[in-house]
Amino acid sequence: MYEAAAQSRIQREKLGSQREVAPCLKNSRRLPAHLSRSSGCPSRDARPLPAAAQVAARDAAQATEEAAAAERAERAERQLIAARDAHVKAARRANESHRRIREKVEELREEQAQRTARRAEAVLQLKASTAEAAAAARGASERRAEALARREEKRAAEKVEILEKGGNPYRVFRERDEAARAAADRAKVEARLAANCEEMHARLGKQRAAEAQQQRRVEREREAAERAALEMTSVGSQVKSESYMRRVTKTGATLLDPTSRWPRIEPSQHVTMKDWKFGLGLGKDGDILDMMADKYPNTAASSRAEAAARAAALPEPVAARSVLADPVASLTLSPLKSASARALAEEARERGEPADEVVEPELPGLWDDGVPAPPGPPSPLKGATLSVLEKRYMAAARQRQRDNVVVEQTVCGKTWRGPAFVPSEPVLEFLDFEAGETYVKTFALTNVSNSFNSFRPAAFPPEVASFFLLEHQPPGRMVAGRSVSLKLTFTPKLGEDIDTVLLLLTHTGPMSVPIRCAPKKLAVLLQTSALHFGTVVLGESASLTLEVKNSGALGTAFAVSLQRGAGDAADEAGKAVFEAGSGGTITLAPRSKATVSLRFTPAAAGSASALLRLDFGGDWRAEHVELSGSGAQVPIYLPRPMIDLRTCLVGALYRDELRVCNRSAVAQQAKTPL
Q: How many other C-beta atoms can be found within 10 angstroms of the C-beta atom of residue 357?
């Protein structure tokens, strides 16, 4: 197909070129020689060309046509080759695509077959397990039926015996079944209780382990915080310096020359330092060897054993010299001959520091008590008696140290007075706590002083120290206005009120933050201790309400009772003129209010009083409220006590109104006899 298309294209190009050249050849006879070599067709009015020129022009045109035809054929050949290559590549891609599609289809078919096989296997397993379960259930049912049949046969025989003895077989069988059921239930309950107890013991064990681990972690953090806080103070710096001096000096002294009487201090005499001989393995200094042996005990022991083995393998004289020359073998120390040296070594061991056990006095008994020391500079081990001036300087230094603990803060002429830190909560309250529980409160301390300041928490009072735990990251010196967060953990052991303070030692003086703890309890408050109903007309009633408030976290119930009233307004028949609600018990929920309705109905004119009693449950005391009121007569009165008709004439009729008023809210009846 591609070859036929290329051949047809070549034929079309040849025909087109012949049509273009034909007019030019027809008119080439009239063209001059210099115009026949130009491109295009000349004008028809040109002169005819000679025969040689025509032949040359025809040959040139034919050569041009052949070159063009060759080029077109070559181009067509290249296109044909490119088309064949493209066809081959397209066929290859199509085959590859078809192969991938076939492989994917095969994979899908295989996966579907596996899925179908698994599903069939699952169905078969389900069928087998169902059949097995059905067989087991059928067997259990048959065994149960056989057991029931045997029991019925046995009971039938037993029933005859019971009836012969005059008993009730149904009652006997019923009691027996109930006893068996109760025993089975009891066994189940006991098994459940045992499992619950075991689980509870395991949970408690894990909880105790977690609490112990948490406590150890808290203790480590607290000790680290205390050490960090101590290191920031002058006392901490002094302790750190003293610890360093005890660790690096041979004698464990904190001060080498406190009186400054020594003309010169040689560091090598007081501090163990490794020199170049030790690096080359030639050192025999006992202090260095002891220090390295204490630092690497396992290496020293193995080296000593190797040296002893090498010495045993050598001849006798050489072995003796080798042991003496071996620096590690020289670690075998001889007994101390001085009591003072032994005491120093014992003190160093107690502090956990390297003991300088190879030190020896220059003279026998020089370090022992009772032997006078030779003249010269005082020994750094015992010190010397201070002079009066030295004692004065020492006292002044101690006073400066005490004064440096609390200093006045003066900035721009203003001296700070008062607490340097303000807590985010004025009072740290733990309300409604329960003994044995743990409560956590987070608060912030803000530096409100004029400049830098720092604080250090002091220990809680001994009586409450085991209840509280303060956790925080020591902030060091705090700029004015900066805040730091603290966490206070409260673990009460007793259900009692606790009022204490958190003491803070600041750079400008101590301060405290109040802490108040209150357990869950009942707190009842009455609106008033006395109620007065005022004056009430006979036949009417007056009502008041008494509010009972519970501000605690425990609820309660209370009963209301009235003691018999007294006074002129009391009912002579004994009927109380005061009434309290509908009677019964009133429930008072935590942090809520309750109202008691009271009514006063006087029975006679005059004053009346009674005592209202409220009995609360629990340990709360009974509350009393005094009730009082007065009764008034029927309020029928005349606005005009006298009617004055003034001068009257005989035989004339005079009239005037008599107005009768009733103050009460109920209707009254009045008679006017003349």
A: 19
Looking at 123, 140, 161, which one is the last position of a domain? 161
Q: What is the pLDDT of residue 486?
A: 93
**Rounded CA separation 491/209 (Å):** 18
pLDDT averaged over the chain? 78
- List C-alpha distances in Å: 250 to 237, 254, 339, 381: 21, 11, 17, 11
Are 47 and 131 in the same domain?
A: yes
Are residues 156 and 42 located together in one domain of the fold?
yes
Cα separation, 330 vs 269, in Å, equals 20
Per-residue pLDDT for 11 more than 50?
Answer: yes
Asked if 420 and 447 count as a contact pair (C-beta separation under 8 A), the reply is yes
- Check whether residue 598 and residue 555 sit in a common domain: yes
**CA nearest neighbour of 301 among 279, 339, 331:** 331
Q: How far apart are CA 53 and CA 453, in angstroms?
A: 121
Q: Please, is 69 exposed, middle or buried when counting C-beta atoms within 10 Å of its C-beta (0-12, 13-18, 19+)?
A: middle
Residues 610-641: pLDDT tens digits? 888 888 877 777 888 888 888 877 677 778 87
> Nearest to residue 272, comparing CAs of 252, 254, 255, 257?
252
> Mean per-residue pLDDT for 244-265?
79
Domain count for the chain = 3
User: What are the φ/ψ torsions at residue 586 (nearest 5 degrees)?
Assistant: -110, 130
Q: How many helices (H) and strands (E) does the chain have?
A: 12, 22
**How many angstroms separate the CA atoms of 260 and 273, rounded?**
24
pTM of the entire predicted model = 0.35
**Local structure of 206: helix, strand or coil:** helix
Cα separation, 58 vs 66, whole angstroms = 12
103 domain-assigned: yes
Range of the domain at 17: 2-161
In terms of domains, do 25 and 149 share one?
A: yes
Q: Which CATH number is 592's domain given? A: 2.60.40.10
Same domain, 446 and 593: no
Which has the closest alpha carbon to 288: 273, 267, 271?
273
* 539 and 447 within one domain: no
Tokens of 118: 């698994």
Residue 513: per-residue pLDDT: 93
Whether the predicted pLDDT of 341 surpasses 90: no
pLDDT score, position 317: 44
Strands (E) in 348-507, as ranges, are: 410-411, 414-415, 421-423, 428-433, 439-447, 455-457, 468-471, 483-490, 498-506
Name the token pair of 19: 């049509």
Kindly state whether residues 46 and 98 are assigned to the same domain.
yes
Q: Which residue has the tokens 């006095």?
A: 361
Residues 477-501 have a mean pLDDT of: 90
Write out the two tokens for 340: 């003072």
Do both 508 and 555 map to the same domain?
no
CB-based contacts of 6, cutoff 8 Å, min separation 6: 76, 77, 79, 80
